[in-house]
Amino acid sequence: MSAERLAGLTSWNADWSGLRVAVLGLSMTGFSVADTLTELGAEVLVLSESADEEYARLLPVIGARLELGSLTEVPAALHDFEPEVVIASPGFAPSHPVIRWVQENDIALWGDVELAWRVRDKTVRADGTPADWVLITGTNGKTTTTQLTATLLVEGGLRAAPCGNIGVPVLDAVRDPAGFDVLVVELSSHQLWYLGLSRPEGELFPYAAVCLNLADDHLVWHGSAQAYRDAKALVYRNTRVACVYNKADEATRRMVEEADVVEGARAIGFDLGIPGPSDLGVVEGLVVDRAFLDDRARSALELTTVSDLEAAGLAAPHIVQNILAASALARSLGVEPEAIHSALQSFHLDAHRIQVVARHAGITWVDDSKATNPHAAASSLRAYPGAVWVVGGDLKGVDIAALVADAGATARAAVVIGVDRTAVVTAFGRHAPAVPVFEVDAGDTGQVMNRVVEIAAGIVDGGGTVLLAPAAASFDQFTSYADRGHRFAEAVREWIERGSADDAGGSPSAL
Prior knowledge:
The chain has helices spanning about 5, 30-40, 55-60, 75-80, 95-105, 110-120, 140-155, 170-175, 190-195, 220, 225-235, 250-260, 305-310, 315-330, 335-345, 375-385, 400-405, 420-430, 450-460, 480-495; strands at about 20-25, 45-50, 65-70, 85-90, 110, 130-135, 160-165, 180-185, 210, 240-245, 265-270, 280-285, 285-290, 300-305, 355-360, 365, 390, 415, 435-440, 465-470. By secondary structure, it is α/β, with parallel strands linked by helices. The strands form 3 sheets. A 9-stranded mixed beta sheet has the order 7-8-6-9-10-11-12-13-14, with helices on both faces.
């Protein structure tokens, strides 16, 4: 295919027929890509090391071809197919041999988000234009902020859908026959890296965007902290109206300052302090907007109160920050303060996000299994100072020492799990030696959380908080962070059913 024809593929109504596209990976995202392309008339080859039975059955039905097998090297089927475009699922790292081969051969390499942007006019609004896009990224808080933003927009009378890394492929939202006014797109650093490869015709022009925070994560995938940071910064590229950033996180402010945005786009800050003009913040227990009003130099608009957030279980500091970011995005699209206040009264956090799973015998058990990196765990520890901290898993190449030295030093004790236990135990020995540490051997992974609960119950016999905030990925011992949280909650329920903390077998001995 000529570069000219490829550059013209920027509409659902363009001529996609006969385009040879190789799709890498057959997850939910990979299937949405294949389904879209076959509907457009492209010739599609899907390559994957494994496949869900339903997806494998459906691919030939929709007209795509599936090749299963190892991708540790470039398969012959890909060579023979001679793809004109390769679309990779977000799990394929830049260092992957197939990705390197694609780039070395100067084959167009897209992610699913770029394809979705190119065909975003599948459904249009009454004025004939496609939905506006709002982009959300950050090391932590992405999913909560995406859900919040969509909820606020809907309460404000807009047809909005959360999609992307949150679990609903962007292509599914784009192809929804009902159509939307706004797509609220959660983007991982992996998806952003692929967007960084976009040719000019494939670049996104979002209505508004936010990077909530930045801390080391996914360093193995990206290769370095700088590469991870650079991927996150792409969220602001070409923003048209509002670049929302975290005033408490200097990295996000610099991203906005350095971003190539559409002329007239505003920088909108948020934090837990008193806001300046063009900011959102907190004043004497009031959550306020000082950015989207005419007299922002002298006044502010009340969005909600901290006491109302406490009543709704949304007052943890990092959750309030998410609320401020979501409110800034919603206000940029014209949602009124009253609608924001109303929506927040009924909003509930997802499971495994600082979720109290039980209170019994004076002990509060908190599941924050979604805290899969040190930055997220630090927020949880600040929300529950003096808790028994359940920590560990697959650290993904991230050094946990700084977290242990800071927030970890305030823990009552630590119960360490996971494949990288040695690194965690060593960090406590060096940086928080006064904190008692208890190690749970991997053993039978099905019993890990039962042992965790037994140990923790023995430590806090008489009262206290036990906080699961692993600061690590879950795949070393569990199928997902949700599975890890479910097993923790189930182990707590089983302990309660046995009667009391006395059944924990006595107080354990620290390392």
